[in-house]
Automatic annotation (TrEMBL):
Coiled coil: none annotated. Belongs to the FPP/GGPP synthase family. One of its GO terms (biological process) is isoprenoid biosynthetic process. Its cofactor is Mg(2+). This is Octaprenyl diphosphate synthase. GO terms for molecular function: metal ion binding; prenyltransferase activity. InterPro entries: Isoprenoid_synthase_dom_sf, Polyprenyl_synt, Polyprenyl_synt_CS. Keywords: Magnesium, Metal-binding, Transferase. It comes from Dethiosulfatarculus sandiegensis.
């Protein structure tokens, strides 16, 4: 499947999800709708709702109600709202972050509304395992946010700690999107687990690409300032690789730039150059590719017996879509 075909398939699946999002944002408090609309309809690829819909179709179930796909975008939007408050972010998806427009208090409360709305939609299915999967996911996500907070500015964070954070912070929601699609389709446990494993590996690849783009992307395409992670003291794979593998004078200089009280611009530009020039970005793309391949391998045994399953084929191909994204 070509990249253009994958993008077309994603867009086709995203359209009913978009309509469902609009339909499910109703509240008698109009301000909630206003803030929710601002973050949810400011862009984004709807990857998580698409994963849910694709997984449900691929697992052989009846066409899932697009309303349920809203669960995953609502959760994603809620985490973005809360993240921007914690990070004191100025931009999100290329425009002022919601917190700068509506204030931190309103943004936190609307994030809580979106979390609650997700649980309400899940409860409407009447499927206990569906709701359980959602609660497990959100618990893990909360742990990830706390872990990231605890390690902010931790220049000694190692690869194991980094992976623990991004599994919980990002990958688990992609994993749950796929897992819950299979649960909704009443798939057997082996298939449910395979879809969960696929989503987890895909999520790791997704976050690694995000971390690489923070060093090489542009603000226009990335939708937020590049070098944002380093400026906030968030230690990611490109930094870890150079710190641990570059010549001693390079790694020492990188640590100095992060610790010294220079202006942000000076720190970012020199540090980003050191990371790029010493293989930090290249190794991150390499590791992301390895996880994308593992994601595909999780579905290989299913594909072998269902070669005509187009939804499964698109799900399998999405790994390359994630690797080639620029936003």
């Amino acid at each position: 499947m070509s990249l253009d075909e994958i993008k077309a398939g994603v867009l086709k699946m995203a359209q009913p999800a978009d309509q469902a999002l609009a339909d499910n944002l109703k509240s008698h408090v109009s301000y909630i709708e206003q803030v929710s609309d601002y973050i949810i309809f400011s862009g984004g690829k709807r990857l998580r709702p698409v994963l849910f819909l694709l997984a449900a179709h691929a697992a052989g179930g009846n066409s899932p109600e697009p309303t349920l796909a809203s669960i995953f975008e609502f959760l994603h939007a809620a985490t973005l709202l809360h993240d921007d408050v914690v990070d004191e972010a100025g931009l999100r998806r290329g425009r002022p972050a919601a917190r700068t427009k509506y204030g931190n208090d309103a943004v936190i409360l609307v994030g809580d509304f979106l979390f609650s709305k997700s649980y309400s939609l899940a409860a409407d299915t009447g499927i206990p395992s569906f709701v359980k999967a959602l609660t497990d996911c959100t618990t893990y996500m909360a742990e990830g946010q706390v872990l990231e907070l605890l390690h902010t500015g931790d220049l000694k964070l190692d690869m194991e700690g980094y992976l623990e954070i991004i599994r919980a912070k990002t990958a688990v929601l992609l994993a749950a999107s796929c897992q819950m699609g299979a649960i909704y389709a009443k798939a057997d446990q082996d298939l449910i687990q395979a879809f969960y494993n696929y989503g987890m590996e895909l999520g790791l690849a997704f976050q690694m690409i995000d971390d690489a783009l923070d060093y090489v992307g542009t603000e226009h395409e990335f939708g937020k300032p590049v070098g944002h992670d380093l400026a906030e003291g968030k230690i990611t794979l490109p930094f870890i690789h150079v710190r641990d593998n570059a010549p001693k004078e390079v790694s020492q200089r990188l640590l100095e730039l992060t610790e010294l009280g220079k202006t942000q611009t000076e720190v970012l530009e020199e540090a980003k150059a050191l990371v790029r020039d010493n293989g930090g970005v290249d190794i991150t793309y390499q590791k992301a590719t390895e996880h994308a391949i593992k994601a595909q391998e999780s579905l290989q045994w299913v594909l072998a017996s269902q070669k005509d399953n187009q939804h499964l084929a698109l799900l399998h191909s999405l790994a390359w879509y994630v690797l080639n994204r620029r936003t």
